[in-house]
Amino acid sequence: MKRALVCGAGGFIGGHLVNRLKNEGYWVRGVDLKYNEYGNGNADEFVIGDLTDPVICRQVTEGGFDEVYQLAADMGGAGYIFTGENDAAVMHNSALCNLNMLHAAHLAGVKKIFYSSSACMYPEYNQLDPENPKCSEESAYPAAPDSEYGWEKLFSERLFLAYQRNLGITVKVARFHNIFGPQGTWRGGREKAPAAICRKVIEAEEGGTIEIWGDGKQTRSFLYVEECLEGVRRLMESDFSGPVNIGSEEMISINDFAKMIAEISGKNITIKNIPGPEGVRGRNSDNALIQEKLNWAPSHSLKEGITKTYQWIAEQAAKEVELV
């Protein structure tokens, strides 16, 4: 039986990854600062630990693992990442997690490790036109991310690839593009745009108004979590190291995305655009490389995924009302 260590297993993508690996027959150890709060706690063993501590990293890699998945990071949505108020914590905590876990995995003799990078590492100068962003993998340099979160991701990509070159550990690097789905954070300030907009629509009255940061003309693509995991697993089983985009090419403006969610809800909703952090003007995955290297690319529609996500968040919101 293969053994896998999932770092960040208490989080959204990490929790889903634990389930995926268990379904594939792996023995899984999860590690995080907290247990997964939405029921994705199916690891064979779960360690509560802070991966900024190298002692914890050495402890959780004991026992031998075929694969390590390093998804642990200090992160959140635009309200957390782009205000500038959390830059020191984001860079310090995420960089330490990556430095410590990668080195501990190497010392433990792990042969293969996955690192979840982000599309936030792409240069801001290629994402100024909301209709024509450029996010192909080779466009990463000259580097100019628009956030310290993106700079840390870029540094950590280079860290992992340096360990591969110098120390022989097999590394896989993917650049995630706005992963969403059920069983993720949907309130509290760290939620990302899909969950935040779903929550706003759910809380709005029929004929009510929801607020969207910026003019709403900024564009993004969003990838349903199950397709993200399919890309991760295909990358891990391939001979390609990356970095490679794992994202959708179905680009949409934030205003139109909000209208899509309102349509799913059946409510008549008005959008009010207000000042707020919004990140780059345009971002969309370029899937040419993943199609070439893995003979696969995400294909599910955004509406299909956000419908499932909206329904799940609506259920969670209803449960909270029942408890009041």
From TrEMBL:
InterPro entries: Epimerase_deHydtase, NAD(P)-bd_dom_sf. Its EC number is 1.1.1.364. Residues 4-247 form the NAD-dependent epimerase/dehydratase domain. Keywords: NAD, Oxidoreductase. GO terms for molecular function: oxidoreductase activity. It comes from the Bacteria. It holds the Pfam family Epimerase. This is dTDP-4-oxo-6-deoxy-D-allose reductase. It comes from Emticicia aquatica. The gene is chmD_1.
